[in-house]
Every structure is written in C-alpha cells, then in structure tokens.
Amino acid sequence: MGKKGKKEKKGRGAEKTAAKMEKKVSKRSRKEEEDLEALIAHFQTLDARKTQVVETPCPPPSPRLNASFSAHPEKDELILFGGEYFNGQKTFLYNELYIYNIRKDTWTKVEIPNPPPRRCAHQAVVVPQGGGQLWIFGGEFASPDGEQFYHYKDLWVLHLATKTWEQVRSPGGPSGRSGHRMVAWKRQLIVFGGFHESARDYIYYNDVYAFNLDTFTWSKLSPAGTGPTPRSGCQVSVTPQGSIVVYGGYSKQRVKKDVDKGTQHSDMFLLKSEEGREGRWVWTRINPSGAKPTPRSGFSVAVAPNHQTLLFGGVCDEEEEESLEGDFLNDLHFYDATKNRWFEGQIKGPKLEKRKRRRATKAGPEGADQQECAEASAQAPLEVVREVVSEDGTVVTIKQVLAAPGPSEQPQLGEDDSPEEAGGSSVEPCPRSNAMLAVKHSRLYLYGGMFEAGSRQVTLSDLYCLDLHKMDEWTVLVEADPDTQEWLEETDSDEDSDAAEGAEGGEEDEADEEDEEDEDSGEEDGEPQHPLVTPGEQFADYLSRTEQYWVRLAQDGAGPEAKEKRVLKVAHAMARAFFDDSA
Description:
CATH class of the largest domain: Mainly Beta
Number of strands: 33
Shape: globular
Number of helices: 5
Mean pLDDT: 79
Number of domains: 2
CATH superfamily of the largest domain: Kelch-type beta propeller
Structural class: alpha+beta
Organism: Phyllostomus discolor (pale spear-nosed bat)
Protein name: Kelch domain-containing protein 4 isoform X1
InterPro entries: Kelch-typ_b-propeller, Kelch_domain_protein
Oligomer: single chain
Radius of gyration: 25 Å
Distance between the termini: 72 Å
Region (Disordered): 1-33, 350-375, 402-431, 487-539
Largest sheet: 6 strands, mixed
Low-confidence stretches: 1-14, 361-425, 492-501, 506-528
C-alpha cells in the first residue's frame, strides 16, 4: 500500500508540474500570440474577398515542408494543403490548396472562400462520408524571423463534394499545438501529443483527445496504464485489430539556462479501447521484432496496403550543447502490426547503395544535390561532387559519398524474385526530413521536404512515386529544380517590416503575386488606390500621414464588433505590408 500510494502521489505531482508549466508557457506566449493574431486577421481579411471557387491549372507547387498531403477517398487525386518555406531570412506560411490528378499528371490550384488561416505542422485526415471530407486540426503560424509562434486549436473540414470550407466550433478540445498526430478511428478523430512553443518556453504533450464525427463534440481520454512520455512528430496509426500504435517522436527539455537537450524517441506503445467498456482506453508498451528504424526525428508516415505502416526518411541528430549535427535519411521501413514486426523496405532493380546526408559540418555548405541519383560500385566508395548555382546567384558545393552498406535484415524474396533483382533503385528521393506522403491505389507518393547543406536549408518541391506491391523502382514525376531555390544570408537588422511580407505566402509564381498586389492596391472592383508612398519617406512618417485611412479599411474588414485595439493592430499591419511592397 505504501509503495502504491507513493507512486500515485508522484503521478499527481507530475501532473501538477505539467499544469504549472503549461500555464507559464501560456502566459508568456499570450503577448506574442496577440501580435500575430493581428497579422493573421489581416490575411483573413484578404481571403474573405474571395466569394467563389476558382480552379486554375498550374505548375507544381513551390518548395515547402510540413504541409499535409492526402488521398481523395473517391477520386484519383491527392490534396496538398498549407506548409512552410524558409529562405534564410524569412519564413513563409501557406494556406493554398492544390489538387494533383494522378491519371492526368496535372496540378490545379483551388481557391475556396473562407479557408483556414496560413499554417504548417498541422494534421489532416480524410474520411469518406458526404462525398469525402478533409478534416484539419491545429498547426502553427510563425513570424517571418522565426522568433514568434501562434499555435492553432481550431478544427476545419473541407467538404470535397461541394468544395466548401467549414470551421467547426466545439468546446473542450485540445489546446493550441503543432507537431501533434491525428488519425480516424471508427467514427472519431483521435489526437495525440504535439508541442506549444513561445519565444522563451515550450511544452510537449502526451494527452489524447477524441472528436466524434456524429455529434461534433470533443472528449479528453484518460487511458489506464503507462503511456508515452510527452512528444511531437511521432508515428500514430490504426492497426487492423482496431488499436492505435504510437512510435518514436521528438521532445526536448531544458538542462540549464538557455541550453536544451533533445530526445529522439524509439519506443512503441499500443492504445486500445477496452471491449464492452465504451470510452475506456488502456496504454500498453510493446517491443516489436525485426529490422527497427534507427532513432530519428522528422520522419514521414503513411498507411501502406494490408494496413502496414510505412516510415520514410527523417534526420538522426547528434546534439552537443553548442551544436547540432546529424544524418538525413531516405530509407523505408514497414511496421506490420499483425506480426508486431519491423521490415526494412528493399527496392528491386539495379543496385544502389544506402544513402545518408550529413546535416551540418564545419567545412561549410556541403550536402547532396536533390537531383543526383548516381550508381555506386559495391566494391569501393564513390564520391560525387557538384556545384549548383541557384537563381539568386548562391553557389552551393554538393558532395555525396556512396559507401558499401552493412548487413541488414531484408524481407524474404517472392517466388518470382531472383537474388540479382533484390537490390536498390537506380533512381530514388534524396535524403530528407519533413516530407509529405500519401498512398493511393497501393502507390506511395512523396512530395517535398528539406535537408541542410552546411548552414543552408534546401527546401524541395520534387514528387516521386513507388509501387508498393512491386517495389521495383521509384518514378520521378516532378524533378527538383535548383533554380526554385532562394537563399538569403542572415542580416543584422531585425525589422518588423518583415512581418506582413513574410507570412503572405511569398515564393509563388509571378501571376499570383500580381493578383495579390492588385487586391492589396484596391485596383480591382473599382476600389480606390491605397495612399502612395512618397520617395524617401520613412514608415513612421507614412503611417502618421495615412493611419486614419488604414483604420477605416481595417474596421470595414473586421466588422463593427471588433475591439479598437485589434483594429488598430490590423491597420498597422496592412499599412506596413503596403509600405514594404511599395519600397
């Protein structure tokens, strides 16, 4: 009794500590989130001008990561929403919706009135009812300098049949977060984990929530047993037996002032609903056999045929107090819940050695070209060096060493497979993290992601396809284009002028930029032009001269019930955006 009581007391103490930390983080982040709310409101005002659905054939989307990539439940289409892009100085957030037609190999940009605000690191789940629905929860909005974050706790549904967005307002849901995971389980959406970060503090979660798709209500689950520690970016999937499996993920904790230590988790848990006891769940830790993935973060997950869970890539970090190094990966792993076993995915075809990319080295911008897929000899390592010149004139030296692989467990060969055929693919996605995966008709589609070349982040926009039944070769549908890369070195100035410009969306085609400029300048629909910026005028002088105009404009967009302080923030953000565009 004594030990049990002590254990329960310790558990309650941990819960109190977590509650205090969450309250502390919430209080400190409230101010910066209020600042970002004004900016988000400004962009929602622009989105509100759209009154009808517009579908425009377009080139493949610009480079991005941490978007959602989902298969349409009825059509041969993949749905890409949101994401982020970093160019060395600014972070760009998106709320665009793209449709990829698998059979036609074409992209369409779909503009729908009143979409969710710009975000990344959210979760999207497709369910078949009503002609197909895409449910989106949470995610984050970041200031262009990456120093401030706004974490969403909103829930949206895209009705695919009617192409309409709807925000579902229901109390009692999870707190604002990103990096969480969400899956469809029976007639519910199950949300696990994630994190919330402010400029100075952060907190990771291991709570579980369920959203009922029939009653549109949230409930917090309290599973029995010992579950995963708080984490984000983990694998969460539903097993054929109806349980929910949680694997890996990432978390960090403060070891001393201004020093954090990250943990790449490699444990696995099973969340099971107790039979005959509705609403009762239990955690169980499991230890699968087979060729387990190495510990990593930033990996991507999809559900393969036969309900196997597929894991791709990521980055294996080696953290020191003052530095972060590691390897980016492009390997495939499958988890079979029926056998409770991991298998390494082997591609049949011409032999190509397993590849990694070093994260960051003292030698400078070294990495691997995202278009490079050279054959390697099994007898000796092969070093390939390239220089890539991006559109902004930056020269990146690319070096890749392909080494002989070590022994690893492989799935058994089929009857029609010869040992000569069981090798690697001659074409494959380069090592990366935070890519987007979707599976349709037993084919895996992989889009975008990122890797690092020295101090530079390379964000990708390539698209690959792999037949998961044949496992014979990767097919390149969209090649990575180095000319789409823009990299700006960091500057000493940290001006607020980046705020509106950076979050606007940024790296889009010129036509989209011109359309946005037309909207912002009020030239469409006969609206008057915004007050012009005189040559050499400073923003403070411009704002003093035109503030009343922007306040009236913000008031019109926000409505009569909006608070004066909020209207003023939106007005200043709009003025800053126009001033920067004019400059």
